[in-house]
Amino acid sequence: MVVPSPSPIRNKKTKAVGIPVIDLSLNRSAIAELIVNACQDYGFFKVVNHGVSKEIIGRLEGEGVSFFAKPSSEKQKAGPAGPFGYGCKNIGFNGDMGELEYLLLHTNPVSISERSKSISNDPTKFSCAVNDYIEGVRELCCEILELIGEGLWLQDKTVFSRLIRDVDNDSVIRVNHYPAVKDVKGWGPCGPIGFGEHSDPQILTILRSNDVPGLQIRLRDGLWVPVPPDPTDFCVFVGDALEAMTNGRMISVRHRALANSEKARLSMMYFGAPPLNAWISPLPDMVSSQKPSLYRPFSWGEYKKAAYSLRLGDNRLDLFKANTNGDKVEL
Predict the structure, then answer these.
(1) Quick one: pLDDT band at residue 17, thresholds 50, 70, 90?
(2) CA separation for the pair 237, 227 (Å, rounded)
(3) 229: cis peptide before it, omega within 30°?
(4) Distance of CA 3 to the CA centre of its chain
(5) Which of 101, 146, 179, 278 could form a disulfide with 274 if both were Cys (CB 3.0 to 4.6 A apart)?
(6) What is the pairing mode between strands 172-178 and 298-299?
(7) How far apart are CA 36 and CA 41, in angstroms?
(8) Calpha distance 251→244 (Å, rounded)
């Protein structure tokens, strides 16, 4: 069953659209079909009855709130983000800025343990909260990817999820804090930008936020759709790698986050990514004479390097289209 979410507020460049909300407790074949349709039409959907406990979610949220409440001098000890660690306003390495501060961590437990020493006064407690959350959302991510495999009638239903389950996967977790912006003068008609327009380079993103609005997705026609916040559900985003592997059938959705003028917003994202040496290319099941391969094969490491070399809003997949005659991108 798909439940339309409450109608968001419209402005000149946005419109009200019912965001797909999918109940994961329903019949499996029905869920698979609904997820595939949402990925094709929006590149985005919400899930309820997802199986990740409130306790696990609440512990990581509490750690995030505690960290971002620290004085700036204390938070800076966990930075600068390069890319992992604490960052403030700078997004990436190429001049993109936003009204936010964040923690970016690799999901490797050893890396988390080491990073936690500069983040928390109780590193063990912080590490346990992060690792437990990762375990829960990784399982959710893999379950959704296997449902996509079933909905696409792929011969190998685990072709996506096994990349995330691989011990050498390159998945990351990010906690974003968007402080309330009191002075909104000088910003464009959409208001202060917390995190600018972009798509996610990985396979699938699982996002959870508090009850403060700000997230928006862009439709095919270029209009922006505000996503109503609900702390009890998860937002799911198709990433660039999944679009490439499905030969363009799934849409890597472009999205952004606006800062709020009244309340702080906290969001937690799990970015499911393959190992650096994994090869990404359209699956044979997704290619035919009527639908030839749109993208040349590339490694996740190669694509990640391209992502880090470009601005936030650049379309990275254009560099890997098959019609480039197989020429490799020089970065």
Answers:
(1) low
(2) 12
(3) no
(4) 22
(5) 278
(6) unpaired
(7) 9
(8) 9
Q: Considering 265, 296, 311, 316, which one is annotated as catalytic?
A: 265
For the chain, the C-alpha Rg in angstroms (whole number) is 19
What confidence score (pLDDT) does residue 93 get?
76
Contact 64/103 with Cβ under 8 angstroms? yes
Active site residue 10: no
> Which residue, 230, 257, 253, is CA-closest to 240?
253
pTM of the full predicted structure? 0.91
How far apart, in Å, do the first and last CA atoms of the chain sit? Answer: 45
In this structure, of 4-18, 37-51, 298-312, 316-330, the range with the lowest mean pLDDT score is 4-18
Q: Give the 3-state secondary structure of 130-177.
A: HHHHHHHHHHHHHHHHHHHHHHCCCCCCCCCHHHHHCCCCCCEEEEEE
Helices 54-68 and 123-151: crossing angle in degrees, nearest 10, is 130
Q: Which helix (H) or strand (E) holds 329?
A: none
209 CA to centre of own chain? 12
